[in-house]
């Protein structure tokens, strides 16, 4: 089992070494690109979804063409494994020849690495394409689970919980007397009880499953303020009591009676495609529409968000402090923020991941790249994601994961 990232901090506090290699200066971008030429950049990124993997393969081809560098996707099951690797290298005195150059990261993993001085930076806000995000109008690109990024990670995509359902199983016609899919966490429990085995969530500590726990907790607590401060500053048992009461009642009505859970979000999607579920959710709003277009989900699938909003965040890339190929990593991070890369990523035929760019402020030719196919019936309406709930403090993710496993696995 990989070491949980926030648990690393006491040990890391004892390590006071600093990197020896001079860092490339992103204010001299031509010099950065010249240094990057010929480098091989090792990008540690989650590898659990074929669309994501294909997109990273495309990025590798493009940066090879544009910058004459090689990009290697090191596929991870859990980002904390990369955190542990950087820690091990620092503990061994490896200060400038690390094995990781770029990490797909956010949340508790970013908090742990930044607190322990395991990240190179600040660099992100000096990337030429970073200005296209217009952080003054989009503060989410410089905030990660309540924490300021301070230039230590560069944004490259947006995520928000989106529910999707099979409209042939769940009618939504008021004229026919159909009630439609559940529009709140409370209604979800009632729906699951009335439709046993037709809903579930990914097994913790999967990121999508853990986000479902946070979504439910925000909806169930009377006061959400403690969730936006470190978990250890709250009465954790008292704050989370409504969540465990909710899950205790929900689990018997889940797929396989809550005795087994799908491992990941993609596996959850597969269960929907196989007809085992009628209702599911994803952290990528365009995923259901993309899966319909790829014939992985039936044409009867529709997407929606809860009436009170759903959790959303930005995902980032960061550079470890001891990467020997930081120039190449910066070149990749900057390319990921280009209109070309962002539009290709948002394309339903590619991935469907939302852009972090301020599209309204792009030149007209670049704005045209981001036109959305609204004819796909599984696509959310353009204004559906306006009510985004902010992520709790990163410590809540780890605390909830440990408490869930203690309650539902270790007994």
What does this structure look like?
There is one protein chain. With 411 residues, this protein is α/β, with parallel strands linked by helices. 35% of the residues lie in helices and 13% in strands. It has helices at 9-12, 29-36, 50-67, 80-91, 108-115, 185-194, 207-220, 236-250, 265-273, 287-293, 326-336, 339-346, 364-367, 395-408, and strands spanning 40-46, 70-76, 102-105, 143-144, 147-148, 154-160, 162-166, 279-282, 301-304, 310-318, 388-389. The strands form three sheets. Strands 1, 2, 3, 6, 10 and 11 form a six-stranded mixed β-sheet that branches. It has a three-stranded antiparallel β-sheet with strand order 8-7-9, with helices on one face. Strands 4-5 form a two-stranded antiparallel sheet.
Write the layout of secondary structure elements.
Layout: H1 9-12, H2 29-36, E1 40-46, H3 50-67, E2 70-76, H4 80-91, E3 102-105, H5 108-115, E4 143-144, E5 147-148, E6 154-160, E7 162-166, H6 185-194, H7 207-220, H8 236-250, H9 265-273, E8 279-282, H10 287-293, E9 301-304, E10 310-318, H11 326-336, H12 339-346, H13 364-367, E11 388-389, H14 395-408
Parallel strand pairs: 1-2, 1-3, 10-11
Antiparallel strand pairs: 3-10, 4-5, 6-10, 7-8, 7-9
Helix pairs in contact: 2-11, 7-8, 7-14
